[in-house]
Amino acid sequence: MQAFLAVIAVVFMFGCTTVEVSEDGKATKKSMSALGYDFGPPKRNDGIYKIYIPRIGCQAREPHLQMEVTNLIIDEFTKEQSYYVVPRVKEADGQLNVVITKVGMSPVRYIDKSQSKQAQGVPVEFRVVVYANVEMFNRKTKKVEWKLNQLTGRYIFNTTREFPFQVARREAIIQACGDLSREIVDNSVERWD
Q1: Could you tell me if 126 and 157 are in contact, meaning their C-beta atoms sit under 8 angstroms apart?
Q2: Each residue of 119-178: pLDDT tens digit?
Q3: What is the pLDDT of residues 18-42, one digit of tens each?
Q4: DSSP, res 89
């Protein structure tokens, strides 16, 4: 009797996992439930479960940014697991199009009198902001499901003698793009419109 109750308790605690399989044997959807509650990706009204993410566009004058940011976005979607990222467009239900429109930088902290009278007013800390336009295209209905303009990613950095300005700036842009990729995933998964 105790063994039976232990099995029942395990089922209630850990739930049941179901996997839907297509005719060719590939898993299409995986879900888990316990006590009547479903866990995992939400049910989507748009029918998009698999997405293709092409190389992003970049209107900013930053060299070699496209592939790094594309990989950051794919990594974030892979970690989040609400969408299944596929390598070919023909396998996808949706396509996520991203265009970086601008990379801005502004100083946020300066040297003051107490630090150095000669260098007073020289910036020592900067904020990098990366702006992007993002849209989700439904490949089944051939319509844009949603579009967000001027989504931003931010990062604050400071320079040192060991980490010169150009190197620190480039690393800050990549970090801001990492923040942007998290914003893209959050806005893709948690649609409130």
Answers
A1: yes
A2: 666 677 889 999 999 999 999 999 999 999 999 999 999 877 777 888 889 999 999 999
A3: 555 555 655 555 566 665 566 655 6
A4: G
Q: Outline which parts of the chain fall under CATH 3.30.160.180.
A: 45-189
As a dihedral over the C-alpha atoms of residue 82, residue 86, residue 92, residue 96, rounded to 10 degrees, the angle is: 70
The residue whose two tokens read 């998009």 is 48
Nearest to 76 by CA among 190, 193, 184, 4: 184
The structure tokens 């601008």 sit at 102
State the Cα–Cα distance between residues 175 and 71, nearest whole angstrom. 13
| Other C-beta atoms lying within 10 Å of the C-beta of residue 86 | 16
CB 49 within 8 A of CB 93: yes
How far is Cα 193 from Cα 187, in angstroms, rounded to an integer? Answer: 11
Token code pair at residue 49: 């479960």
List the CATH code of the domain at 45-189.
3.30.160.180
